């Protein structure tokens, strides 16, 4: 059974993404965060409505909020949504 997206689940997802999928986070920032010149990105938090990133661009760190196209139901929905977003971004 999937977990609801609590702060603890957000931390777990962010830790996994930051450690294992930095390229995906950078792609989220570039495509969905409208920051094509982003150089480094980190996922700070995720909630049912969206995700918060910290992006480095031109020696500046800027926060970016990316809204999802639907409200996430749980951690499994988050997993599938993040994968779908990467597939869509790579197609652009």
UniProtKB/TrEMBL annotation:
Gene3D superfamilies: PNP-oxidase-like
Protein name (record): DUF2470 domain-containing protein
Domain DUF2470: 10-85
Parts of the chain that traverse the membrane: none
Domain of life: Bacteria
Family matches, as InterPro entries: DUF2470, Haem_oxidase_HugZ-like_sf
């Amino acid at each position: 059974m999937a977990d609801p997206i609590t702060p603890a689940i957000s931390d777990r997802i962010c830790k996994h993404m930051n450690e294992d999928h930095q390229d995906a986070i950078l792609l989220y920032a570039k495509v969905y965060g409208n920051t094509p010149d982003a150089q480094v990105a980190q996922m700070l938090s995720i909630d049912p409505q969206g995700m918060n990133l910290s992006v480095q661009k031109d020696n500046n760190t800027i926060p970016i909020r990316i809204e999802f196209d639907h409200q996430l139901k749980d951690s499994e929905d988050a997993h599938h949504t993040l994968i779908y977003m990467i597939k869509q971004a790579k197609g652009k």
